[in-house]
Structures are given as C-alpha cells and as structure tokens.
Amino acid sequence: MKKPEFLDFSQERIRVLHFTWIAFFITFYVWFNMAPMATTMLNSLDWLTPEHIKILAICNVALTIPARIIVGALIDKYGPRVVFSGLLIIMAAPAIFFAFGNSFIQMVIARLLLGSIGAGFVIGIKMVSNWFPPKMIGRAEGLYAGWGNFGSAWAAMTLPWFALTVFKDWFNLGEDSWRYALALNGLVSLVYGFMYYFLVKDSPDNEKNNAPKGKAEPMTVTSYGDLIQYLIWSFPLVGAMGALAWRIGKIEIDGEVLIPEQGLYIIYSILGLLYIGHVIKTLQVNLPYLKKGVPEHEKYSWGSVAALNSTYFANFGAELAIVSMLPMFFETTFSTLVGANNQPIMTATLAGLIASSFAFVNLFARPLGGFLSDTMKNRKLTMIIYMVGIAVGFFLMGFIGKQGPIESNGISQLIPTFNGLWWLVVAVIITVLCSMFVQGAEGATFAIIPMINKKMTGQIAGMAGAYGNVGAVVYLIIYSLVETNTFFFIASAGAAFSTLYCLFFLKEPEGSFADEH
C-alpha cells in the first residue's frame, strides 16, 4: 500500500516540509504565549491591569509588520535556512526577558521585540515553494501553515497547565509560576533554532534562491499603474505603526501618559521619513526598469498582490487579534456559568482550551484551503467563497455575548446571550466553524502567492504577511476602543470588503496547475 504523499519521509522534500512547519509551530507557540496567561498574570501582579493586557496584545503584533518586510527581502538574499534559524535563536532573548519583566515598560519593550518572531511565517513559505511544484503548492503550503499556526492553540492548551500544575503545584514556585512557563517557550525556540540549521537545506539543488544577489531592493513592478498601487499599498505598513504609537501614547502610568505629545510627533516624523525613503528607493529601482520596457514573460498583476494583501488583512489579521483576546473573552463572558455543585465552570484552563479551538482547526482547515485551491481548478473562486464564509462567521460571533447590566464602577460586562451550558456549546461551534473559513482562506491566499512571480515570492509573501499584522494592529486597536460585539461586526465588514476587492482585482494566475517547478 502506497504511503500518503506527505508521510513519505524517504523523500527529502517531505522531511524539509515537516522540519519547517515545526519551526513555524514554535514561532507561534512563543508569539502567543501571553493570551492564555493573561488572567493568571493579572492575579499575580497587582500593578497590571486589563488595559495593560490589551496594549501588550497590540505591541505583540506591531513590529511584525516591518519584520516581515525585512525578512522577506533577507530570504531572497540569504536563503530561508539561515534566516529561520537566526530568527528562532535571536527571539529567545525577548521571550525570556518578558517572562521575568517587573514593570509595564519592560514588558512593552519585550513584547514589541518578540513580535518580530511572527516574521517566521514568510520564511517557510519561501522554503516550501523551493521544494514543491505548482500543482502541489497549495497543499504543501497549507500543511506547513496550518500545522505551524497550531502553535498558538498548543500554547493556549498547555501553558496554563504548565504554569498552574507543573510549576506552581509540583515545583512550588508560587505566584511566579507563569514566568517559568513563559521562559520555557524561549528555551524551546533557542534549541530548535540551532537544530533547524543542520536539518534542512535551501532547495533541492541547494541554491539559496533564484533572485539576483546584492542589496535587498523594493519590489519591481511591471507598469506605471502598478507602481502607483505599490506606493499606495505601502503606506498602511507605516501608518499602522503610527496608529500603534497613538494608542500606546494614550496609556497613563502614575498620571503620566506613556508617550508625551512631543514624542508622538517625533515618531510620526520618523515614520514619515521612512515612507518617503521607501518611495524614493522604489522610484529609483522601478522607473529605469519601466523605461527600458518590461519583457512580456516578466509581467505580473500587482492588482493580485493588492487583493491578497486585503485577504490576509481580513483573515490572518483578524485571527491574530482574536487569538490574543479569545481566552479572556470566554472566561469573562461565561464567568457566571456554574455547575451542579454551584462551582464556576469557566476556569482559566478551560477558557484556554475552548479558545484554542479557534486555532486548533488549523491542523486541517488551512491545508484544506490549499487543497481546495489546488483541486477546484479556480483559485480565485475558492478565495472568494472562503472570504464570504469569514464575513458570515464573524457576524455570528458578535451574538455570542450581550451587554449585561451596568455595575457599580459604571462598566457593563458581557454576559451570555442565552443562559445555560447549551449556549456555551453553541458558542464553541460558531467559533470553530468561523475558524475553519478563516484558516482555509489563509491557505487559499498562500496557494496563490507563489504563483504571482516566482522570483519575488519572498517579497510578495513578506508584504502580504505584513498586511496580516497591519490587520492585527488595526483590529486590536479597535478591540481596545469598542465593545466586543462591535469588534466582531467590524471584523465581518472587513472580510466583506476584501471579498469585493478580490472579485474585481484578483486575477487567476497562469500556469498554477503545472506538473513541474
């Protein structure tokens, strides 16, 4: 009996695929280690507030935006093996620094730096595209991303247990037990970073890439209209950083804002100069190229890049935001739910397990998205169907809870829309079904990206990946400003907009079902 393709470890490409999704898994295991520990941290640290947790969640995804752009260029220059190994090793430091942080400022700095580990995703996209032919790319990228994304679910499922059972009960480490659980994350990243370097090579012929060597450059476009699009779509990558600075600047510590007004103006000025520098460099690279005339075989649709930026904003961006808030959402919304012995049913561990259901389906939903993109013979239609499903799913999640009565502090907490354990079961079902569309859409997105322009896969994946983090920053800022129900409805509207954008601007890639590389 023939082995399933992706379990045939006698093939080097299959071994590389599995070693690479494990590397990606570890990045998510480390990246989202705070969400399941949030309530435990609040109980342990008397100076930490729920507002601080929301700001740390935003910081957690902020620097991933520039990191994915930078890493995308570095992959095309140095190859994915070196870049992935280096990222895992370097990011162990802020992971451990955050675990033992004793002030909000320390935690903000550590969380900002640690957000760079989210750039690991685009590295594996390039590695997998080096090893698999177009007709298999959707399934291979889907398996890589889906099993890798499961790292956030694994963190939600296991970290509360490590903190509260292993380190607190077994090793008697007291209220600081959560710190050792998070530090364990960093050590895992450090060890596997060294292992990955020796386990894989960049491509079957061991060439790092097909891109020209030299300095990392902006993307090249193939028409003046595409050049304008590129410059317009580049602006939100710095704009999201400005929005983050504005949101953090509003936080007060001991009556003083975290970033004074003059500091904000300095940050805005630096970001503005960075964007101007990017525009100048992009024009220097592209104008001579366009003036020469672009050969027909080098042309590609930048509208497709923009459309996939929008899909990743709406699916992966929303996912990052939701996995950052979902454990606390379930724990607080269903806090009044009690069992037969009149004891609360919803604990931090149970909330983590339930919230992990959103990321758990990554194991099969994202590979399924890639598989359907490969087999439906119409990658654009597959993408649009998934985005419609996301819009409906987030809309339904907006009805899981409702505003309760206003308490003595003037704040209204969420309560379940309906009473009883049955509604918790329904809420979990809605969450899982919505997640299947979210992760399937991510698989469908990256089943198309390697087809747009093989030579610039790293940069295109880097930009789309960065837009995922732009989405996460935008959605988390919105989450910190509005009611949770409204947050889900806005996420639904974002997916609906992306659906329309794909309908008009996404083009079916040529040769995307070929048998050879």
UniProtKB/TrEMBL annotation:
**Entry keyword annotation includes Transmembrane helix:** yes
Name of the protein described by the UniProt record: Nitrate/nitrite transporter
Residues in Major facilitator superfamily (MFS) profile domain copies:
16-510
* Organism of provenance: Lunatimonas lonarensis
Keywords from UniProt, A to Z, are: Membrane, Nitrate assimilation, Transmembrane, Transmembrane helix
Q: Name one GO cellular component term.
A: membrane
GO molecular function per UniProt: nitrate transmembrane transporter activity
InterPro entries registered for this protein in UniProt: MFS, MFS_dom, MFS_trans_sf, NO3_transporter
- The regions listed as transmembrane in this protein's record are 12-32, 52-75, 82-100, 112-132, 144-166, 178-199, 227-246, 266-290, 311-330, 350-369, 381-400, 420-439, 460-481, 487-506
Q: Which SUPFAM superfamilies match?
A: MFS general substrate transporter (SSF103473)
- One Pfam family this sequence matches: MFS_1
Task: Please report which protein family the annotation says this sequence is part of.
Answer: Belongs to the major facilitator superfamily. Nitrate/nitrite porter (TC 2.A.1.8) family.
PROSITE patterns listed in its UniProt record? MFS (PS50850)
Topological type in the membrane: Multi-pass membrane protein
Q: Name one GO biological process term.
A: nitrate assimilation
Record localization: Membrane
